[in-house]
Amino acid sequence: MTWLRRARDRGVTLVPTTGRTLSCIPHQLKEERLYRYVITSNGASVTDLDTGTDVFRAEIPLEAAVSLMEACEGKGLGMTAHIGHEYWVQGRMLSLLGRLRYGRDAASSQTVRHIIPYAAQAQRNVEELQFFFFSKAARRRTEQALAGHSGLAAAYSGSYVEIYSKAATKGTALAAIARQLSISKDEIACIGDGENDIPMFKEAGLRFAMGNAAPELKALADAVVASNNENGVAEAIQRILA
After folding, report:
1. Domains and CATH numbers, the chain
2. If pLDDT is split at 50, 70 and 90, which confidence band does 155 have?
3. Adjacent-strand bridge partners of 73
4. Residue 185's Cα: distance from chain center in Å?
5. Res 51 pLDDT > 80
6. How many beta carbons lie within 10 A of that of residue 185, not counting itself?
7. Strands, sheet with 223-224, edge to edge from the N-terminal-most edge strand
8. Phi, psi at residue 145, to the nearest 5°?
9. For residues 62 and 122, what is the distance between their CA atoms, to the nearest angstrom?
10. Angle, CA of 211, 213 and 214, to the nearest 5°
């Protein structure tokens, strides 16, 4: 946090960029507000915390989200959704697993018994869906259902998938902030570690990849710094300020 404070004090506009929803960003960032804008849900939303408004949104239409959840629900599948900047989890078991993994950062999640009726009643578009696979059949069911939704994109891992609008990327969200602040690409530096940071790298003039970053991201970086566990972010900020 020391180098984040120094960057803020030097006039740098800090923008946390995360796949999490706004209510579940890391507690360290909540406790010390060093930023005004935040990109959440892998680029589905950019929020101005000073005004409480969203300056950019690229969401899953409600009808498409409900249709997909109905097609995928069943044995072996856990469902969560980012709705209205909140993280909604279906069932106590999935909620407990989240709290075991993310600790305090998961404390703001909301648990419901059945998420589909809640999403329908909320009457809001959905920032992101996350489905967790507890069986191979659940994954196959999801893959088949997604084939019928051309406007959606999906990022799979071994045990879950993140689903979002094709218009939602960290790059389009970053470009929206650049327009808001009237700054050029050359005035933007970014730090990342995952494949979903690639669109963001393409919108920045200076790019730092963490030591533990995906090979595809390292190939686009101007410099590779230490890993997440070795103060790589601090190293990158020192270089930026220099």
Report:
1. 2-58+169-237 (3.40.50.1000), 62-165 (3.30.1240.10)
2. confident
3. none
4. 22
5. yes
6. 13
7. 189-192, 206-209, 223-224
8. -70, -40
9. 9
10. 140
Alpha helices in the chain (DSSP H): 2-9, 27-31, 62-72, 92-102, 115-122, 136-146, 170-181, 198-201, 215-220, 232-241
DSSP-assigned states of every residue in 13-59: ----B-SS-GGGS-HHHHHS---SEEEEGGGTEEEETTTTEEEEE--
pTM: 0.90
- pLDDT tens digits for 21-44? 998 887 777 777 789 999 999 999
Give the model's pLDDT for residue 102: 67
At CA 99, angle to CA 121 and CA 84, rounded to 5? 30
Q: Exposed, middle or buried: residue 91 (CB in 10 Å: 0-12, 13-18, 19+)?
A: middle
Q: CB–CB of 107/31 below 8 Å? A: no
> Whole-angstrom Cα distance, residue 139 to residue 182?
43
First-to-last alpha carbon distance for the chain, in angstroms, is: 18
Report the alpha-carbon distance of residue 240 to residue 190 in Å, rounded: 10
Span 218-230, pLDDT tens digits: 999 999 999 988 9
Is residue 46 predicted with pLDDT exceeding 90? yes
Q: What is the pLDDT of residues 102-112, one digit of tens each?
A: 677 667 788 88
- The amino acid present at 85, given as its one-letter code, is H
The letter for the amino acid at 31 is E
